C-alpha cells in the first residue's frame, strides 16, 4: 500500500509522527494510509476543555488538489459541527489550497473549537441557541463534553 502512496502524503505522515501537533494525535490506519484516526484535546479556556474528541480524516485520491474529508466521531455541541460530525470550515471547502497540509487542517479544527462561529452555522439550532443565550449554550457544550468526550481511563 505504501508504495502507491504519493511522496507528499508519506512526508506528511512522517512529520505528524516525528513532530506531532500539540493536543492532537493523528494515526494512519495500517491497512489504508489515507485514513486517519484522530484524537483531539479540547482547547483550554473553551467549553470543550478537558474533552478528548475522536475524529476521522480521509485523504481522497485527488489530495492535495482536493481537501481532506474530516468529521467528528465524538458528539459535540457546536454551531459549526452537525449531528453527523460534519464540520463547516472554509478550508475544507471553497478555501482549500494545495499549500495546506493535514496538520494545518487539524490546527484549524482545534481553533474552531476555541472560537465557534454561529454566523456561519452547520447546525442552525445550536447556532440560534449560541446567539440567543451564549452563556447557556456554552453550559450545554460543557455538559456534552463531560458526557461524551471523556478520555478513556488509563
Q: Tell me, rounded to a whole number, the average pLDDT.
A: 94
CATH superfamily: Ubiquitin Conjugating Enzyme
CATH topology: Ubiquitin Conjugating Enzyme
Categorize the overall geometry: globular
Written as H for each helix and E for each strand, in order along the chain, the element string is HEEEEHHH
Please compute the radius of gyration using only Cα atoms.
Answer: 16 Å
Low-confidence stretches: none
Q: Just give the CATH class.
A: Alpha Beta
Number of helices: 4
**CATH architecture heading:** Roll
Domain tally = 1
Helicity level, as a percent range? 25-40%
Question: What composes the largest sheet?
Answer: 4 strands, antiparallel
Could you give the distance between the termini? Answer: 33 Å
**Strand coverage percent:** 5-15%
β-strand number: 4
Pfam family, one: UQ_con
Family: Belongs to the ubiquitin-conjugating enzyme family.
Keywords: ATP-binding, Nucleotide-binding, Transferase, Ubl conjugation pathway
Organism: Dimargaris cristalligena
Amino acid at each position: 500500500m505504501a508504495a502507491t502512496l504519493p511522496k507528499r502524503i508519506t512526508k506528511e505522515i512522517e512529520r505528524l509522527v516525528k513532530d506531532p501537533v500539540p493536543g492532537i494525535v493523528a494515526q494512519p490506519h495500517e491497512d489504508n494510509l489515507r485514513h486517519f484516526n484522530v484524537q483531539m484535546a479540547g482547547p483550554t479556556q473553551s467549553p470543550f476543555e478537558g474533552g478528548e474528541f475522536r475524529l476521522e480524516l480521509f485523504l481522497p485520491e485527488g489530495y492535495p488538489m482536493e481537501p481532506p474529508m474530516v468529521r467528528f466521531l465524538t458528539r459535540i455541541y457546536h454551531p459549526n459541527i452537525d449531528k453527523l460530525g460534519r464540520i463547516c470550515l472554509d478550508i475544507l471547502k471553497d478555501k482549500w489550497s494545495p499549500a495546506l497540509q493535514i496538520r494545518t487542517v487539524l490546527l484549524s479544527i482545534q481553533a474552531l473549537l476555541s472560537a465557534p462561529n454561529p454566523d456561519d452555522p452547520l447546525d442552525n439550532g445550536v447556532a440560534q441557541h449560541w446567539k440567543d443565550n451564549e452563556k447557556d449554550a456554552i453550559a450545554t457544550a460543557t455538559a456534552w463534553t463531560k458526557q461524551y468526550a471523556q478520555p478513556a481511563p488509563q
